[in-house]
Each structure stands twice: as structure tokens, then as C-alpha cells.
Design goal:
Largest sheet: none
Number of strands: 0
Number of helices: 7
Helix content: 55-70%
């Protein structure tokens, strides 16, 4: 694997760990009511998408090994370009479920999921695919009506 590719994958891992640290001990109410926390977590959710977009441009074979890498990039684009319509609960789901899973898939030695446990439990796990209509990385915007 190229050094540049390893750097992008390290960026994904680091963002996952930071988001987890930011959320440790927080509830959804804490997240929803604290603009600085939301901004910090959203930023750490944007980084994997940007890193994977760069990786796909330089090493498509490595990028293709990351499950849902195109959807992760799409989620980043939603956060950046659709910021006014972002659903905070979906961002929380991504931060507490998808980002740690991505870090584990990436071979993270210290799975970021340990940082997310308290935060995810604070929601009472309202994020099953059934409850959220099967939404995922690419559907983080609020539904209309």
C-alpha cells in the first residue's frame, strides 16, 4: 500500500477517535443543544468522506476495499453542501455506529467504538434501520413533511 493511502486511512481512524472522544459521556440532548459539539462531531464525520474521496482519486483499489466508500463520500457532501437540512439524529447515528465500524474495518488497533458507547446508550438506540426507514450515509437530510 502506498504511503499516501496509509495517510488517508490514518486520517479516517483519527477522525473516528476524535468524534468518539467528543461524544464520550454525552446524551443526545447534550449534542442537540450544544452547537460547538455538533460542529466538532460533524467535522469529524466529514473527514472520512474527504479522505476517502482523495484515496479513490489516487488508489482506487484500496478505496474499493472500504465498504460503502462511495456512500461515505456522499455523506460528506451532504454535510458540506446540504448543511441547512442535516438531521442531527442521523449525524449521531453515523458518528456512533457507522464511523466506529469504518475504523474497525480500516484495522484500527483501538476501535473507536469504545468511545461511542456512553453516547449511543444515551439515545436508547433509536437508530435501527426499521425506525429510521433504512436511511444510511447518503440520507442525512431531514425528510420533508
Amino acid at each position: 500500500m502506498r504511503l499516501e493511502s496509509k495517510t488517508y486511512l490514518r486520517d479516517v481512524e483519527h477522525a473516528a477517535q476524535l468524534a468518539g472522544e467528543f461524544l464520550t459521556g454525552k446524551t443526545f440532548d447534550d449534542y442537540a443543544s450544544t452547537p460547538m459539539l455538533r460542529a466538532a462531531v460533524e467535522r469529524q464525520c466529514e473527514i472520512p468522506g474527504e479522505a476517502l474521496a482523495q484515496l479513490a482519486g489516487t488508489d482506487v483499489a484500496t478505496a474499493a476495499q472500504i465498504r460503502e466508500y462511495r456512500r461515505i463520500i456522499a455523506f460528506r457532501n451532504i454535510l458540506i453542501h446540504g448543511y441547512a437540512e442535516v438531521d442531527h439524529r442521523i449525524v449521531c447515528e453515523v458518528a456512533t455506529v457507522k464511523v466506529p465500524a469504518l475504523a474497525r474495518q480500516n484495522g484500527c488497533q483501538r476501535p473507536a467504538s469504545r468511545y461511542f458507547v456512553n453516547f449511543a446508550e444515551g439515545f436508547g438506540n433509536p437508530y435501527s434501520a426499521t425506525q429510521r426507514g433504512g436511511r444510511s450515509w447518503d440520507t442525512a437530510t431531514r425528510s420533508s413533511g
